[in-house]
Write a sequence for this structure.
C-alpha cells in the first residue's frame, strides 16, 4: 500500500487558496522532494500531512489512514521537522527530549542514545536559549525521530546546519534512515539527489510532478521564476 | 435564498410593532404608582428578554458550527450575538431611564435583573474584539463559537448568582406576567412578540446583506480575477465573511464530521 | 492519560522553576496591592464585607497575571504543535493546565493570606482559617478552570494581554460573589460566623458547570 496518497487536496486561508488540486502518490521507503518559492504552500502541505491542519477538500491518506477522520491513527507515526524546533527554550535538550519521550511513550534510554547521535550529550544540560541555532536544529532532529516514525516530514531540514552536522544527522533523517520522507527544499542539486519523486508547487498549485530521474535542474529553476 | 420571505417578515414586523405601540398607548391602563413612565416597561423588558434569548440562540448556533464546521452556522451565530448586543444597548438605556424616573437614580444595584444584564453585556462586549484579534478566518470562527457557547451558558448561571446576592427582594413588575392585570399582560405579550419579530427581521436583513456581499465578491472575482491583497485586507473585520467556495468546503466538512 | 498529565505537569514545573515568571510576580503583586489598598482607603484595619472584598479582588487580579502567562510558552515555542503531534488525549492538556494554575493559586494564597492578616485584617485570621481554606479552595478551582479556558482562548490572538482579563473578569463575577459573601462573616470583628451553605453551593455548582464546559470545548481551541 502507498505510504501517501493525496488526491485533489485543497486548503484555504480565508479567501486565499494555500493549496489546491494537489494529487500525488508515494510508496513506502521513497522520498518526495517538494520545490517551490516562498509561499507556494510547501509548509501547508507538510502541516496537512502531519494532521495539524485539516484538508478543506480532496482525500488524503497517510500510512493507510485517511485524514482527518483517522488522524488519531497517524499521530505518533509521523515525525515533523519544521522551521520551528517545537522545543521549550527554557528547558535543556535532555529535558525537552524526555518530555517528548513521555508524550510518545518512549523509554528514556532512547533520549541518551539520540543525544549521542546528534553529538549533543556534552551540552545536553544547558537551556536551549543558550545554544546556537545549529545546535537547536540538531536537538530538533533528535526530537523528530525520537519515536522512530515511519514517515518523516522535513521542512528544509539542513537550515542552520554546517556540513559536518549534515553528515551527523544523515543516518537519522537522510536516505540512510530508510524512512518514507517528504522534504521541502530550495536546493535543486541536493534535493534532486535525494528524491525519488519531485513535486513542484507554485502559488499552491502543482506545477511539476514527476519521478526524479525525469527531472532536470532547469525545470526546478523554472518554478522560482 | 437568504432574501426569500424578507418582505413578508418585514410587513409582519411593522404591523406587530404598530399594534404593540397602539396597545401600549391606548389600551393598557396607567400604572397606579408610576403613571405614564411605567409604559417604558413595554419597551425595556421585551428588549432585554429578546437580547438574552438572542445570546442563548447564538450559543446554540455556535454548537451547530462546532459540530458541522459549516461557516454558515458561525455567520448565523455572529449575527444573533451582534443583534443582541444592539438590543442590549437599548435595554440598558431604557432601564436606566426607568430607574431614574421611578427611583431617582440612573443606576440601581438593588435590581438583580438589571445588574446581571450589565455583567452579561460586558462579557459579550468582548465578542467582537476577540474575533477581530484572530487573523485566520477558520480559527476566528471556531474560537468565537467556543466563546459564544461559554457565554451562553454563563447567562443563566450569572442570573442565578446575582439573584442570590441581592439582599433586597423588590416587589417586581418585571419578569413574570402572572401578577400583572389582564390588559397589561396582554399588552406586554404583544410587545414581546413584536420585539421578537423585529429581532428576527433585522437578523435576516443582516444575513441577506452579508450573503449578497459574498456573492458580489465571488462575481467580481470571476470577472476581474484575484482581488489584490490590499483590497482583501481593507475588508477584514470582526464579522465573518462567507467564502465563495463555502459550499464545497461544507460538503468536505460534513463528510468529515464524525 | 495520567502519564500524559504527569509529563505535562513536570514540564510546567521545570519551566516555572527556571523562569520564575508567574508565581513570584503574582505573590508580590498581591502584597503590593494590600499596601495600595491601605493608602487608597486610608484604613489601617478592615473587617467583614470590606475585608472579604479586598482579599478577593486582590487574589483575582493576581490570578489574572498567572492566567495571562499560562499558555505563552506553548503558543510561542511550538508546544501546542508538539502536543498535537503526539498520540495522546487532548484533555490531558486541560487537566494539566488547570492543576498548574491551581498550584500557582495555592502558593499565591500561602503568601497573600498571611500577609493580609498581618497588614490589613482587624480580627485575628487564625480562627477563620479552617473555613477560609475551604472557601478559597472552592473559589480557586473555579478560577483555575475559567482561567485556563480564557487563557487558551486569548493566547493565540493579537491582543492576548487585553483579551484575557476582559473575557475573564465578567466570567469570574459569580466566583467573587460566592467567595466574598462566604468570606465576609468569617472576617467579621464581632461574632464571626461560618459561611452560609448557599454560597459554598453556588461556588461548587459554578465550578462543576464550567468544568464540564471547559472539558467539552477545550479540544476546539487546540487544533488549527
Amino acid at each position: 500500500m502507498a505510504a501517501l496518497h493525496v488526491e485533489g487536496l485543497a486548503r484555504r486561508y480565508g479567501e486565499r487558496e494555500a493549496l489546491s488540486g494537489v494529487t500525488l502518490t508515494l510508496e513506502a521507503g521513497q522520498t518526495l522532494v517538494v520545490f517551490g518559492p516562498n509561499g507556494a504552500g510547501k509548509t501547508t502541505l507538510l502541516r496537512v500531512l502531519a494532521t495539524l491542519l485539516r484538508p478543506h477538500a480532496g482525500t488524503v491518506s497517510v500510512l493507510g489512514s485517511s485524514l482527518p477522520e483517522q488522524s488519531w491513527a497517524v499521530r505518533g507515526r509521523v515525525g515533523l521537522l519544521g522551521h520551528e524546533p517545537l522545543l521549550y527554550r527554557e528547558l535543556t535538550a535532555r529535558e525537552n527530549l524526555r518530555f517528548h519521550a513521555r508524550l510518545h511513550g518512549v523509554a528514556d534510554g532512547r533520549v541518551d542514545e539520540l543525544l549521542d547521535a546528534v553529538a549533543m550529550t556534552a551540552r545536553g544540560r544547558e537551556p536551549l536559549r543558550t545554544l546556537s541555532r545549529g545546535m537547536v536544529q540538531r536537538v530538533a532532529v533528535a526530537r523528530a525521530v525520537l519515536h522512530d516514525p515511519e514517515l518523516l516530514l522535513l521542512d528544509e531540514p539542513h537550515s542552520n546546519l554546517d556540513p559536518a552536522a549534515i553528515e551527523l544527522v544523515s543516518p537519522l533523517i537522510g536516505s540512510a534512515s530508510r524512512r518514507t520522507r517528504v522534504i521541502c527544499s530550495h536546493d535543486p542539486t541536493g534535493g534532486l539527489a535525494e528524491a525519488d519523486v519531485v513535486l513542484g508547487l507554485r502559488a499552491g498549485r502543482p506545477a511539476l510532478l514527476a519521478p526524479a530521474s525525469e527531472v532536470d535542474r532547469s525545470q526546478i529553476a523554472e518554478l522560482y521564476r | 435564498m437568504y432574501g426569500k420571505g424578507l418582505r413578508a417578515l418585514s410587513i409582519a414586523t411593522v404591523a406587530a410593532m404598530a399594534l404593540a405601540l397602539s396597545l401600549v398607548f391606548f389600551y393598557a391602563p396607567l400604572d397606579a404608582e408610576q403613571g405614564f413612565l411605567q409604559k417604558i416597561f413595554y419597551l425595556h423588558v421585551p428588549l432585554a428578554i429578546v437580547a438574552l434569548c438572542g445570546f442563548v440562540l447564538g450559543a446554540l448556533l455556535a454548537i451547530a458550527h462546532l459540530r458541522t464546521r459549516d461557516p454558515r452556522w458561525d455567520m448565523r451565530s455572529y449575527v444573533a450575538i451582534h443583534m443582541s448586543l444592539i438590543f442590549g444597548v437599548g435595554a440598558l438605556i431604557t432601564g436606566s431611564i426607568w430607574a431614574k424616573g421611578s427611583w431617582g437614580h440612573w443606576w440601581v444595584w438593588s435590581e438583580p435583573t438589571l445588574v446581571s444584564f450589565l455583567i452579561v453585556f460586558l462579557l459579550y462586549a468582548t465578542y467582537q474584539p476577540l474575533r477581530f484579534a484572530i487573523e485566520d478566518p477558520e480559527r476566528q470562527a471556531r474560537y468565537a463559537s467556543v466563546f459564544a457557547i461559554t457565554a451562553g451558558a454563563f447567562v443563566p448561571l450569572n442570573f442565578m448568582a446575582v439573584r442570590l446576592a441581592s439582599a433586597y427582594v423588590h416587589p417586581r413588575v418585571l419578569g413574570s406576567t402572572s401578577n400583572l392585570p389582564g390588559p397589561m399582560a396582554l399588552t406586554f405579550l404583544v410587545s414581546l412578540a413584536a420585539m421578537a419579530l423585529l429581532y428576527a427581521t433585522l437578523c435576516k436583513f443582516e444575513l441577506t446583506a452579508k450573503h449578497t456581499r459574498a456573492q458580489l465578491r465571488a462575481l467580481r472575482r470571476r470577472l476581474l480575477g484575484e482581488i489584490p491583497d490590499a483590497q482583501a485586507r481593507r475588508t477584514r473585520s470582526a464579522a465573518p465573511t462567507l467564502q465563495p467556495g463555502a459550499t464545497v468546503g461544507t460538503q468536505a466538512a460534513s463528510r468529515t464530521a464524525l | 492519560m495520567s502519564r500524559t498529565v504527569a509529563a505535562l505537569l513536570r514540564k510546567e514545573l521545570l519551566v516555572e522553576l527556571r523562569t520564575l515568571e508567574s508565581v513570584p510576580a503574582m505573590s508580590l503583586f498581591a502584597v503590593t496591592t494590600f499596601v495600595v489598598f491601605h493608602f487608597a482607603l486610608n484604613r489601617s484595619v478592615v473587617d467583614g464585607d470590606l475585608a472579604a472584598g479586598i482579599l478577593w479582588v486582590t487574589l483575582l487580579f493576581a490570578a489574572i497575571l498567572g492566567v495571562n502567562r499560562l499558555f505563552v510558552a506553548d503558543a510561542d515555542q511550538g508546544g501546542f504543535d508538539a502536543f498535537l503531534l503526539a498520540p495522546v488525549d487532548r484533555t490531558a492538556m486541560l487537566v494539566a493546565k488547570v492543576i498548574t494554575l491551581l498550584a500557582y493559586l495555592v502558593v499565591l494564597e500561602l503568601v497573600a493570606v498571611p500577609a493580609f492578616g498581618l497588614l490589613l485584617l482587624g480580627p485575628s485570621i487564625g480562627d477563620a482559617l479552617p473555613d477560609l481554606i475551604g472557601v478559597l479552595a472552592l473559589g480557586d478551582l473555579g478560577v483555575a478552570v475559567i482561567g485556563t479556558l480564557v487563557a487558551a482562548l486569548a493566547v493565540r490572538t493579537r491582543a492576548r494581554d487585553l483579551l484575557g482579563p476582559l473575557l475573564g473578569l465578567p466570567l469570574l463575577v459569580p466566583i467573587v460573589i460566592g467567595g466574598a459573601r462566604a468570606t465576609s462573616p468569617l472576617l467579621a470583628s464581632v461574632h464571626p460566623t461560618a459561611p452560609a451553605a448557599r454560597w459554598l453551593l453556588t461556588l461548587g455548582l459554578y465550578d462543576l458547570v464550567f468544568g464540564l464546559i471547559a472539558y467539552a470545548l477545550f479540544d476546539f481551541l487546540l487544533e488549527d
In short: Chain B touches chain A through 15 residues (CB under 8 Å). Chain B has nine helices and no strands. Residues 70 and 250 of chain B are 5 Å apart (CA to CA).
